[in-house]
Amino acid sequence: MTALTDVPLNVLDLAWRGYGQSNADAVRGSIELAQHAESLGYGRYWFAEHHGMPGIASSSPAVLIGAVAAATEKLRVGSGGVMLPNHAPLVVAEQFGTLHALYGDRIDLGIGRAPGTDGVTALALRRTPEGLDASGFPQELQDLIGFFHGNMSPNNPMSQLLAVPGLGDAPEIWLLGSSGFSAQLAGLLGLPFAFAHHFSGDNTEAALQLYRESFQASDFLSAPHSMLAVSVIADASPEAVRREMLPGSLSFLRLRRGLKPEPVSVDEALAYEYSPLELDFISHRNSRQAIGSPDEVRAQLESLLESTGVDELMLQPSGASAEGRRHSLEVVRDLARGAI
């Protein structure tokens, strides 16, 4: 079993825009949180691509990666992930090739198969219905890898193209997923795999097992290498945990009803009358995340490490306030160092 004291710790950021904040506040807060994470000893700092969601300002991971890489010194910065169905592989290769040219081996490229948004927005991003169902994802992923490494088949029409920057400026490539499809594809291609447990926690162990069973050694890896993304809200005060947790929970409930709500205030979230069904949904969604007191968070993370056997953890601080997100990272850092 991998102990919490031994596993590398990383951060997943959605550039949260809190109640009453501007987009400028959100992205500035992400840069400040990344600097704080670096000072605490975290290894990677990734941005997730989302579109059209008022409370999330991470629609352009490549731009945020450049800003954070410029504001830090050693932190690995990357995407968690870029949703490839939204983009031409050549564009992604040029963007991340440029980032690698600027910041060297500090850049990670995590790739996802889902569009990360609704169908209309996905169509606006792609500008054509072709590819929206992600059926071409395996080929597009291999095209993207080829733009970086130059190993495309001569029968592939993309082999005639040159990514500049891109070829010779390859970031560390990860495949992300919340299903067996992505897990198996990552294994077959010999790529590291990150599982999105923070929003899809019911299939975690099965998907990771499929990844390991499917794994074939490659130029990237000789053995499987996996990471787990987990939501974290940690505080010694139960009331503080509740205040940090409920605004995001209420926003997610509204999102599940097809709404795209503005950020929820703490007061609104505390005053809202949750139905028994809503409370059950929130409880189930949080049951295998790292939410609670330091002792509870330690137990939750160690349980996940035991059941999944992952090599790295990626914490998604999901508290309502910047202070709460900073504190959660501090608590887990202290737990990992055996300080509490």
TrEMBL record:
UniProt KW keywords = Oxidoreductase
Look at the named UniProt entry and state the broad enzyme category this protein falls under. Answer: oxidoreductase
Query: According to the lineage, what is the superkingdom?
Result: Bacteria
Q: Which family does it belong to?
A: To bacterial alkanal monooxygenase alpha and beta chains.
> Could you tell me which residue ranges the Luciferase-like domain spans?
22-312
What is the organism of origin for this protein? Gryllotalpicola reticulitermitis
Record-given protein name: LLM class flavin-dependent oxidoreductase
The molecular function terms of the Gene Ontology recorded here are:
oxidoreductase activity
What EC number(s) has UniProt assigned to this enzyme? 1.-.-.-
